[in-house]
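Notes on consecutive records. When two proteins share a document, each keeps its own sequence and its own token line. Never mix them. Below: protein one.
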Amino acid sequence: MPTTPEPAPGPQKEAGTWQLMVDNNKARLLRKTGKDTAHWAGKARAAGIQSDGELRVWLRDEFGVTGYAQYAVSWEMFGYPDFMLRDADELIGGQYANHPHLRPIADAILAWASATGGVAIQMRKGYVSLHSARRKFAQVTRTTNNAVDVTLRLDTTGPGAAGVDAVGLQAAAGRIETVKTRADDLFTRRVRLTSADQVDDELLETLATALAQNS
């Protein structure tokens, strides 16, 4: 039984950018309050709100609107950060502009993600995250001048490790490091890569296992 998911048929998927987060925050605000961002921005302007800090306190104290829903109103009123307006190609290009020798590593991982069913690619300013339909399972980050780290939400010892691909995980065990994180950070495994050749079947099987565990 193959450990790596079969490539999805049809054209390759496009990488998402911050637009997905923007849309999700707008939807969250609408679900929470029954009113859209234009309504809340107009209401805040009428109340004389002049800054992001004032807006957040006002939304929280007067209406109980907190967290990501606040961002939707703030961005509507005060504009979006510059990096959020960049497209996916520009974001990935910026990450490796000064380290072009590492770009093939990221490209090889993205090629797998693009061809694998059930994987969504999200570009950020400083990293790329890979998501299942359920949640994020991997992050690809240039962390040094000579390495790219793949951090994983991956169970290598508990029930999840036995249920998905125990043999593949055992084979990759020497490459998977345990990293110290905050108590609430579940991305406790890392594979450090220094060349595109290291994006091999073993690594792709590890990514496939992380995908399966988080789907």
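Protein two starts on the next line and is unrelated to protein one.
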Amino acid sequence: MIKELVINFHDIIVFDFETGSRNPSKTQPTQIAAVAIHGRKLTIQPNGYFNSEMRPILDDEKAIEKGFDPLEDEALDITRKTRAALAKAPSPKTVWNKFGNFVNKYNWKKTPYFAPIASGYNINGFDMIIVDRMCEQFGPYDKERGQQTLFNKIHKIDVMPLVWGWLENNKDIRSLSLDSLRDYFGMSKDNAHDALQDVKDTANLLIRFLKMQRKFASKVQFEKAFADGSKEL
């Protein structure tokens, strides 16, 4: 059982929301995109892309009445979306059901413990909060535990702290925003802040860092590393 829970045996879903405001507890998603990565090979799975805009509540008063933030012009400008185009997008329920079906394709035992691992950029502080909201509203959701059951219940890979762990002592790094990392790593900013482009860039970072970690980890003697009595504290 322990071996089955090793990260290599779960696929990874790198996903991203574009939203109409900044508060993840109240914002309205306007787009969701994802890419499925083979957990062992670190390659894109066949038919492994998902991308859809999502229709928000466009009337500010109705949005507030429902407990959501109204759409902010600044957010729409950054993501290059218009109210007219979003009015034609599918409903949140329709999009979420399709996204759930996409994720479940990579749940090889059809249980929350073997579900794909959620990944993305700053998902711990933003996107997973929205996932919990969407799952509570549209499913799948464990009411007894109060948590989503779409993604793996044990593992998550937020690429932001992953990158921080490698670069926290690098004097050339001034910001860990995705745009700053694009500049630092020489990645194009073309179409940045589109959810699909953001997940592609995040997936490239994730794959590169995981490959590097695996290479170094294979050369490090972790087992019994403290057996000689050496400690940092």
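For the record: The first helix runs from residue 60 to 65.
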